[in-house]
Specification:
By secondary structure, the protein is α/β, with parallel strands linked by helices. It has 14 helices and 6 strands. α2 links the parallel β2 and β3. The longest helix is centred in the C-terminal third of the chain and has 23 residues. The chain is globular, with a radius of gyration of 20 Å. The termini are close together.
Length: about 325
């Protein structure tokens, strides 16, 4: 069976994915599938730079506003929902355009593997490592509870791999042994054309700072304030970039100016991590928007897609 062809437009935050994706989707009559781990949450609009009403009127968007901020959601949930969207688009003979900056979600959906680094989460790992130092037997017992095959395979003293296996479980919602079996069992039914967008570092950072200022002007503080009223316990979603920093201000832990500067710094660091992640994928065709006008990049991507779809899968 022929693999479903998907145009993928990825890159760091604030690089310019949204407008380019909208233009290309309009050109081909495509529908956009969000690949952003935070845009799935309802009410988290400004801080995630979620497509607004006008953008959604231009092009149909999928996987926005899927769950409430206090509901659990992980990469396995995302893959399941994205697969359903892709199947529906295939039946309708519509072009799918996957656009976003969450590399974990993109890789899990299109490549089907999450190893070795795809499920890294420093905060989860730090907690598990602290527990391993304090009570190493307890984390082995936990692994035996949630992932018996991995517990059987690993020695109780192999704390590094035990921590890694638990980290994957907490990050994805599935045991690492099950994910490994899935990886070995099936080739993904997708044939992606990867397009990467980037800019010179200083220009990208300037755009990041500008975006943060625009978010503040658009009402980010009010958005976070409303979310904290509804979810005072600050669920995991509200620990996300753009929300935890403003929450520091609203909780009296820093001034607004300090929170804004912290958010700019954290976002620049996040963009750097995104670039590092994507650079590992050698299939990506990169365009530097600093060097090439967006109109020429759009034209080049359209030509690449037309050639790509003419080739047999």
């Amino acid at each position: 069976m022929a693999q479903q062809k998907i145009l993928v437009i990825l890159g760091p935050t604030a690089v310019g994915k949204t407008e380019l994706s909208l233009d290309i989707a309009e050109h081909f009559g495509a529908e956009i599938i969000s690949a952003d781990s935070m845009q799935v949450y309802r009410g988290m609009d400004i801080g995630t730079a979620k497509a607004g009403r006008e953008e959604r009127q231009r092009v149909v968007h999928h996987l926005l506003d899927v769950v409430e901020p206090d509901e659990p959601f992980n990469v396995a949930d995302y893959v399941k929902l994205a697969e359903e969207v892709l199947e529906n688009l295939k039946k309708q003979e519509k072009m799918p355009l996957l656009s976003g900056g969450t590399g974990l979600y993109i890789d899990a959906l299109l490549k089907g593997f999450l190893f070795p680094d795809a499920s890294a989460d420093p905060s989860i790992r730090a907690k598990l490592e602290a527990q391993a130092k304090q009570d190493p037997q307890s984390i082995y017992r936990k692994l035996a509870e949630v992932d018996p095959p991995s517990a059987e395979r690993l020695h109780p003293n192999d704390l590094r791999r035990i921590v890694r296996a638990l980290e994957v479980f907490y990050r994805t919602g599935e045991p690492i042994s099950a994910l490994q079996r899935k990886q070995e069992a099936a080739k993904r039914p997708y044939n992606p054309l990867y397009i990467g967008l980037n800019r010179d570092r200083q220009e990208l950072y300037t755009r990041v700072d500008l975006r943060v200022d625009q978010m503040i002007q658009a009402g980010l503080v009010g958005e976070v304030e409303q979310l904290l009223r509804v979810f005072p316990a600050q669920p995991t979603a509200l620990q996300a970039l753009g929300y935890k920093e403003i929450a520091f201000y609203l909780n009296g832990e820093m001034t607004l100016a300090e929170a804004i500067e912290l958010l700019k710094r954290d976002t620049r660091r996040y963009a750097k991590r995104q670039i590092s992640w994507f650079k590992r994928n050698k299939e990506i065709k990169w365009f530097n928007l600093t060097d090439t006008p967006a109109a020429r990049v759009r034209q080049a991507i359209c030509s690449l897609w037309e050639t790509f779809t003419e080739e047999p899968s």
